[in-house]
Amino acid sequence: MESINRFRAAVVMASIVMPGSIAAAIDAERVAVINFDYSDSSGEPEDQTAEHAARLVLFRETLEADLEKVASMATTTIPCMANGCRVSMIRADDLLQESRAAGVGLLVFGGVHKMSTLVEGGRVMVLDVAENRFVFDRVMSFRGDDDEAFVRAARLSARDIAGTVLRRNRAPEGRLETRKGIR
Prior knowledge:
The chain has 183 residues and is of the alpha/beta class. It has a single domain, classed as 3-Layer(aba) Sandwich (Rossmann fold). 44% of the residues lie in helices and 23% in strands. The protein contains four helices and six strands; from the N terminus they run H-E-E-H-E-H-E-E-E-H. It has helices spanning 2-27, 49-68, 92-101, 147-170, and strands at 29-33, 37-40, 73-76, 106-114, 119-128, 133-143. Strands 1, 2, 3, 4, 5 and 6 form a six-stranded mixed beta sheet that branches. A hairpin with a 4-residue loop joins strand 5 and strand 6 (133-143). Helix 2 packs parallel to helix 4 (147-170). The N and C termini lie far apart (65 Å). This is DUF2380 domain-containing protein. Residues 1-24 form the signal peptide. It comes from Aurantimonas endophytica. Keywords: Signal. InterPro entries: DUF3280.
């Protein structure tokens, strides 16, 4: 009898909680994080292409996972991501068309550049797909050429993106970024 009562209580709680959860998921901004470009001008003698490719995947996955934790965001994919697309590999019109067709509201992309053995830098950009306008554009730099450094940079970027997007959603009309997006 006690287990039946617990089951009933769980059903009642689910019926109360689920509509809000469903509404929150529907209202969430759909965000796609595509692969980042990478360049290395450090002049180091050993080939680190495989390690850097793995770290870029880790960077993107960490960024995506942290954005997914934001209540007003839901990460998604676009078709070109199956082929590892980067903004430098695809025509801007095609990228916008794929993003719009997938219902993406925000597109996150950028690049990382290794300047020396311990210093990396780059840029993270977020495009409002419907308006084709940048809503976030940050230059970043970080120390280290290991997984931990890339994870820290991704987490900081996700936190900055989330804060900017939340402010954008509350901004008075006319106070948004006006710089045109990708062309």
